[in-house]
Amino acid sequence: MRQPALPGAAAKRYVAELALGERVDTTFLLQRCDLRTRQSGDPYLASQCRDKSGTGSARMWDGAEAAARAGKEGDYVRVGGAVETWQSQPQIKVDRLEPAETDSVDPADFLPASERDVGEMYDELLAVVDSVRNEHLQALLRATFGDPQVAALFRRAPGGVVLHHAYVGGLLEHTLSVVALATHLADHYDSVDRDLLVTGACLHDLGKIWELAYDQAFEYTEEGRLVGHLLLESNWLARRMDEIEDFPAPLRHHVLHLLASHHGLHEHGAPVRPVTREALVLHYMDDLDSK
Questions:
Q1: Residues 215-246: tens digit of each pLDDT
Q2: How many angstroms from the chain centroid is the CA of residue 289?
Q3: The whole model's pTM is what?
Q4: 209: burial class by Cβ within 10 Å (0-12, 13-18, 19+)?
Q5: Among 9, 134, 178, 226, which one is most buried in terms of CB atoms within 10 A?
């Protein structure tokens, strides 16, 4: 039997805001959805609903089989019910569950996000690009961050799945932090090439925009698992350098070395260890900021 549709959308409520006894009518990301059997033999639905504020338990006792067909793990669903206590823990007692209209869903509501405005951060990054004086490095940075696809992905990508900056906009926030360290250290150490170090800071994690998936959850893509961000970014940037007229071969090698060595150690995934001043400084800046 088809469930009656939920009425018009109510104001968005987040998991962390829900109070005992409150009526619920909102959209969540269905993190887990298990159809189970009670001692009586009747089915019930045990699920986890998530948004950017956290995860909440939800159970449906009546109409569970139809609801289980209405949404699977990873789907956006509209949930109607009430917050109650079950086994001394708050949960949503669900009376209606149906697929959400995805065109009205903002993924940022369901994943943790940077507290900073991503548009402002990207403008900061573009200003850094303009500050690079080496014409070939600036051309490389402009070809990269002026690419519409790269720009869209870089604004949303997390810095990692779990370990650091694991939120929407986290990659951009981490990159700007490493860039800020780069400018300070380039001023402190006269022997360090500022333009090269800043370029490495801007580009060192570029490959994460393809290594990670971040539409409905933070996880690794297939190419991320099989290839990894170091190779993904090195291959992509090598092609961009090929397209820049008279890009010097020695400078190309230094850029690729920065990317390949920034994890520092072989056991941390670096195919080569840092052997230039800029590569060594970049490794320590990235390691410091990620921790």
A1: 777 888 898 889 989 999 999 999 999 999 99
A2: 17
A3: 0.75
A4: buried
A5: 178
